[in-house]
Specification:
Elements: E1 8-16, E2 26-32, E3 57-61, E4 68-74, E5 79-80, E6 87-88, E7 91-98, E8 105-111, H1 115-120, H2 130-133, E9 137-138, E10 140-143, E11 146-150, E12 153-154
Parallel strand pairs: 1-11, 1-12, 8-9
Antiparallel strand pairs: 1-4, 2-3, 2-7, 5-6, 7-8, 10-11
Length: about 170
C-alpha cells in the first residue's frame, strides 16, 4: 500500500526447465522482511519497527504467454540470523511449485547492488563454488524510473539455482 515504508522495487524473472525451455505454469511465493529488516510474524521479536501495512508475503504465477513472473514489493532490510547470530544480507525467500515438481523448491534472491552485505552473508558463504553462489544474486536495472531486479531461475543444468532443504 501507499503507506508502506521502503524503496519500491519489482522482482521479475523466468523459470527454465532442464531443457532450457521457459516454464509457463509455475506458482511463485515470496517471503521477506520489511525495509527495517523485520518479518511480519509473531516469531520475529527483533527490536526493529514493525510495518503493519506490509505483509511480507506474495504469491504470483508465471505468465502463460511470456513465462515472466512479477512481484511488486519493497527492498527488505538486513535481518539477524538464527538465534541472534550474524546479520544476513537483504534477501527474499522464494518457493516454487508446479506440475512436475514433486515437492516445493525453496531458494533465495539476494540483491546485486548489496555487494558488501552479500560478501558477509552466512548463507551465501556456505556455498563453496562462486558460480553457484552467483545463481542467488539478482542484477539490478532500471526501467521507466522503476528499480527492477531480474531473478531468473534455472531448475537444472549448468546455471541451476541453489535450492535449500527446508
Amino acid at each position: 500500500g501507499p503507506d508502506v515504508a521502503g524503496q519500491r522495487i519489482i522482482i521479475e524473472g523466468r523459470i527454465f526447465d532442464g531443457a532450457g525451455h521457459v516454464a509457463k505454469d509455475v506458482l511463485v511465493e515470496a517471503w521477506q522482511a520489511n525495509a527495517a529488516g523485520r518479518y511480519n510474524h509473531p516469531a520475529d521479536t527483533q527490536d526493529k519497527p514493525l510495518d503493519r501495512g506490509f505483509r511480507g508475503w506474495a504469491r504470483t504465477g508465471t505468465d502463460f504467454e511470456t513465462g515472466i513472473y512479477t512481484i511488486r514489493t519493497i527492498k527488505p532490510g538486513s535481518v539477524v540470523g538464527r538465534k541472534g547470530r550474524k546479520a544476513m544480507a537483504p534477501h527474499v525467500n522464494i518457493w516454487l511449485a508446479s506440475r512436475g515438481i514433486n515437492i516445493g523448491l525453496a531458494t533465495r534472491m539476494y540483491f546485486g547492488d548489496e555487494e558488501a552485505a552479500n560478501a558477509h552473508d552466512p548463507v551465501l558463504n556456505i556455498i563453496e563454488q562462486p558460480q553457484r553462489r552467483n545463481t542467488l544474486i539478482a542484477p539490478r536495472s532500471e526501467r521507466d524510473g522503476v528499480i527492477v531486479y531480474t531473478c531468473d531461475i534455472h531448475l537444472q543444468g549448468d546455471r541451476e539455482k541453489v535450492f535449500f532443504d527446508v
